[in-house]
Amino acid sequence: MRYFLVSILILSFAFAKAQLESSQWYFGVTAGIDFSSGTATATGIGQLVTGEGCATISDDLGNLLFYTDGSLVFDSTHNLMPNGTGLLGDSSSTSSAIIVPQPGNDDLYYIFTVDTSDQQYRMNVGFHYSIVDMSLNGGTGDIVSSQKNINLLPLTSEKLTAISNATGDGFWVLTQFEDTYYAYEITAAGLNLAPVTSVVGPFIELISTPITNVDVAAMRGYIKLNARGDKLVAAHFSNNTTAEFSGITNVLEARSLAYAQGGELYLYDFNNATGVVSNPQPLMTRADGASFYGVEFSGNGRYLYAEADYMLPSTTIIYEFLRGEILQYDLTAANIAASKAVVHTDMIAPFRGALQLGLDNRIYHSRINESFLSVINNPDDGGTASNYIYNDFALTNGAQAIYGLPIFVQSFLLNGDINAVDHCFGESQAFTFNTSAQVESILWDFGDINSSNNISMDLNPSHIFSAPGTYTVTANVETLVSSFTETIEITVFEPAIIDAVPMDIELCDEGFDTANFDLSLIENQVNSSLNQVVSIHETLEQATLNIDPINTNLPYQNISSPQTLYVRVSNTNCYDITSFNINVENCPVKVFNVLTPDDDGINDTFIVSGLRDVYDKHKIFIFTRYGMKIWEGDNYTPSWDGTSNRGLAHNSSKRLPTGTYFYIIEFNEPGLKPIAGYVYLN
């Protein structure tokens, strides 16, 4: 029987990892998280001290490049870049900065910033960009002096988000002010300075009252695009009008009204081919009484989460906090607004804070002055099964969360892995795609142009590659509410070749069903290549693991009969296993019919080869020429030495006279007849 296994000496799993540009977070007061291992790990080496806005960027392997609060830029060594101060964002801006790569240039990154002013918001300096060149400062990067703080808009809100464009060769960067969205496209040609503008409700008025810290409340709150790039959500912390502050001169009263009268939560369609924002859908409005700040989409794209604060105006404090809620909306529902579910509520003030999806597919919630982050542990599940846990993730000692968490290009958060293995030619390779999203369809291209089965729409296909080599495998995935493409490289190795299956070997029993086998000739039978190694093993497991090979330079004694041995033929990456049997048989005995018991070591006893311990039930009888039995023995008595142990005159110490004697050997085995003959005693 032949056994055939093809594998890799050391299994090398090939997979397409989720993009790791968002794997490093720095936020709050020297707080950080590292997701590069797939598990969130708190870090305390960051230098940011920021109340709200922050952004971080890593390379696609998860190595930190730099991070910023919109004003200061720190490199991967956690030092300020030489030209990394004075950016025109503000750490008190909800989304003070977002970092976007320059397509086609691995060294260049845009930092987009939005300013704020807690005194009079209209005094902020607007929307700018700066360019970081990672080839500067010894490879740790610096801001290009001539490309620093380039103004794009004179005034905008505290909102920023970004997404890949429809063709996947660029990005859209979005910001908002009053009732207008501005979408700027970045391609390999650079930043298009002419934005796509979309006028959609609601109109968020910039209050013109001279009372400080009133108009800023309406500018607060996040915007987020979903990973597919076709939905946009906006959280407006408040939506007041200038008229509401008419006649109010008390600063505390004015600020209380600005903070506590409710805001807006809106969902839009976004066209990532054109940059157009359309179809405003109010999920909650000012009439519902909640203020909105943090928003995020679940990893599978089905659910939208929003953080809501309920407050009452006060004449003694800025506001009276009633409760905070985490809201969930089902984007597949016919009426999305009506699908609202409150998945968590508490009265632990304060509640306002960012919601941000991590690469571990959990959504983190920042709450001010906490040494923990709260977590939505199962955001892909509906209702309270989403499992919001207050203060579930501990930060490092001394670190604190404030309001903000870092924001990213939302397409960096797509989470999907192609699982497969580098393997040997001839093996059918299984492919699976792991994602938290509900996959609606998938199109596989195995990159094997010589195969008639190069394309598959199976969810988990198998493919036999047409030849050894390296192949780029692509999966185009459509989920319920997102689409994305992942690729991997699969190496198909040259197989190990067994020239011929070795023949079974049979030897005569040398006693106790054993024999000594010469296995040294097996190598030449199975292998003619100098680039392959042959080993022989007693078990299939040993051959598979390549352990405990038999030393073929020595005779091998079998341990059973028949016994299967396993031959492993291997090259650098692959091996093949075949098998053969060794067998011990009971051969005809050979009688040596001369006995010379003179103690010279030659024929001192009656020799019958192939008898003792082979036919262990045998009996031998010795007779004189006259038919008198003078000796009897079996498997467990010494061989006849010319003395007698039977008869009237037997004497075990005195040898019998020279002459011809006769023997009978009974085998006592089914189908074997006794044999008889003579033996000459001299």
TrEMBL record:
Q: Which InterPro entries match?
A: Ig-like_fold, PKD/Chitinase_dom, PKD_dom, PKD_dom_sf, T9SS_type_B
Indicate what this protein is called per its UniProt record. Answer: PKD domain-containing protein
Gene3D superfamilies membership: Immunoglobulins
PROSITE patterns, per the entry: PKD
What organism does this protein naturally occur in? Nonlabens arenilitoris
PKD domain span:
444-492
Which positions make up the signal peptide?
A: 1-18
Q: Give one Pfam family.
A: CHU_C
Q: Which domain of life is it from?
A: Bacteria
